[in-house]
């Protein structure tokens, strides 16, 4: 037999525990402590939804943008035009939150066919704090290279979407070519950074929501990890 | 003129805002998004205290240990005895929380004289989840290298403290020699990892509470970032 008070107490404690557990899981995601994962933990579904739809995600995005901006402004750029800031696209410049809102915020296994349909609509909104940083680094004189795991086939829709979202100019948009499709993002992106360095560019800043945007070889002088508790790309 | 309800609402909102702001700050710390910092934000004093003294820190430490253990167990080690796990010491194996509890949990600027007195007492307790991981990797057959920013002069007290805390054996204990004292930790630790690789060792795992333990050159195959919202070492 159970007493109502006891049930209530258990329920409250369980909520607090869940908050603790899911915050800890999010910390493990953001620090890259986890093994590759395919979906968010079932019990953290509401937590992740509340975070990305609420102020937590916004505040985190704003902080990353501000910190990156302070760093960018602190640098003395060379006159040779070889100083580069690298941006990832999805969940870094463009937000696919409208798609993920319809697909359980990471609870569902990634469906590339459905996601491609969303990409081809070309309506992903800008992540506003990233747009602010983007304009700042352009104004400071950085070369801006966009390095995305999207396919070369999606070049024109990606260009269209970025432009519509307010990203008006860039120096390179590097997408995955046919020979890159089987490479993990870390390998693909490291190879492309290696090429930049070969060509004499200096990668001073790098913004991405995945560690596969930021780690690997030829890393940027400083990397800025945007939050993303919804999915993992190796 | 202000109405009591309004004041109360403002106060509640301000607490919620503070929680949001300090959690966001903690994530920025743990993802290495911040510029070098000397003290925690004044307004996050209570937040950091509650986190490190409460269950949040414990749960996070346990998760890092568990994830690292799963990875360690998944590896097939070679027979040549060259597979290495690197551990940092302070806030990774040993906890200086008793010291920081007496010094504002990061609110005070680091005082090397006072901290050294604490180190020479040799009473820092083990971080229990790390001790569990430590024993696991030893049992799995890893070589265990301790790589710490502590001074060579502190070798004997460090050995004594580690032993007393339950860390019973290791293959190397690498401390800062006189020529290393002016090097940032990232440089010192990268050089030491470089030497390990030169000697034919394979660094498969690395546990540390600072990004300067984990990033730089010759990084480990996988790195595990332990939480530390109290101080920053470049």
TrEMBL record, chains A, B:
SUPFAM superfamilies assigned: HAD-like
- Going by the entry's taxonomy, the superkingdom of the source organism is recorded as Eukaryota
Keywords noted in UniProt:
Glycoprotein, Signal, Storage protein
Known Pfam families for this protein?
Acid_phosphat_B
Instruction: Name one molecular function that GO assigns to this entry.
Output: nutrient reservoir activity
NCBIfam families in the cross-refs: plant-AP
Q: What does this protein do?
A: May function as somatic storage protein during early seedling development.
Q: Which family does it belong to?
A: Belongs to the APS1/VSP family.
**Full protein name:** Acid phosphatase
From what organism does this protein derive? Hibiscus trionum
């Amino acid at each position: 037999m159970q007493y109502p008070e006891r049930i209530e107490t258990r329920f409250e404690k369980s909520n607090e525990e869940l908050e603790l557990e899911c915050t800890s899981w999010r910390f493990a995601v953001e620090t890259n402590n986890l093994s590759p994962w395919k979906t968010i933990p079932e019990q953290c579904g509401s937590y992740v939804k509340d975070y990305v739809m609420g102020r937590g995600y916004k505040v985190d995005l704003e902080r990353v943008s501000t910190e990156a901006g302070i760093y960018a402004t602190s640098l003395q750029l060379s006159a040779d035009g070889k100083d580069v800031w690298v941006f990832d696209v999805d969940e870094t410049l463009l937000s696919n939150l409208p798609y993920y809102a319809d697909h359980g915020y990471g609870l569902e296994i990634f469906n590339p066919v459905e996601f491609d349909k969303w990409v081809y609509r070309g309506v992903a909104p800008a992540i506003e704090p990233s747009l602010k940083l983007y304009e700042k680094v352009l104004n400071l004189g950085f070369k801006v290279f966009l390095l995305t795991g999207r396919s070369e086939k999606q070049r024109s829709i990606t260009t269209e979407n970025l432009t519509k979202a307010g990203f008006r100019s860039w120096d390179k948009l590097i997408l995955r070519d046919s020979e890159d499709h089987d490479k993990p993002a870390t390998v693909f992106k490291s190879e492309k950074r290696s090429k930049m360095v070969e060509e004499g560019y200096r990668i001073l800043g790098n913004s991405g929501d995945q560690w596969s945007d930021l780690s690997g070889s030829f890393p940027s002088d400083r990397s800025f990890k945007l939050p993303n508790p919804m999915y993992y790309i190796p």
